[in-house]
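Please check what follows.
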Amino acid sequence: MKLRIIQVVLFIGIVVLAYYVWETIQTPVRFNKEKDARSELVVQNLKDIRSVQQMFKSLNDTFTPSFDTLIKFMTEGQIPVVNIIFDPSDTTLTKTINDTIAFISVADSLFGRRPDFNINDIQYIPFSERVKFDLDAGRINKGGVMVSVFMAMARKEDYLKGLDKSLIRNPSVKDLIVGSMSEPTTDGNWE
């Protein structure tokens, strides 16, 4: 009888230990799965910010450090629709005739095919309870030339809010950044 009780207690102990081992393995697996899903949405927002910044720069010769300016640019800004035809008098087909035929809003040009896109939400990090992306812009001297630069960043503590803090602190988990304030690049650190 005593042997049977000891066997039952040992069996229960084995089951409990097996559960803890399973959870120890599954916790980082679940974290990585959720981190990847969240990162995908944050990266899409950073790509959207980059697209708007590049459009803003093409029309204003500089980037902007303000989401208010970017949002106003998306809602009120117009870009020309240009019809380019070859000059009929040029037999080399190197000269063109450019004719502006219409104007289209920046938001429609960049995000017209995304019906769920909300212009005002571009400034907020997904999953962060409406924390804004860090946004900065300026000019740097690169090889004797002044170059416009910008950077937008989502801190890992913001987009991974609500997940295991010890796993967020892991050095392999990083802030997501597009652009740079020290180099003339518009690449993201996920690329």
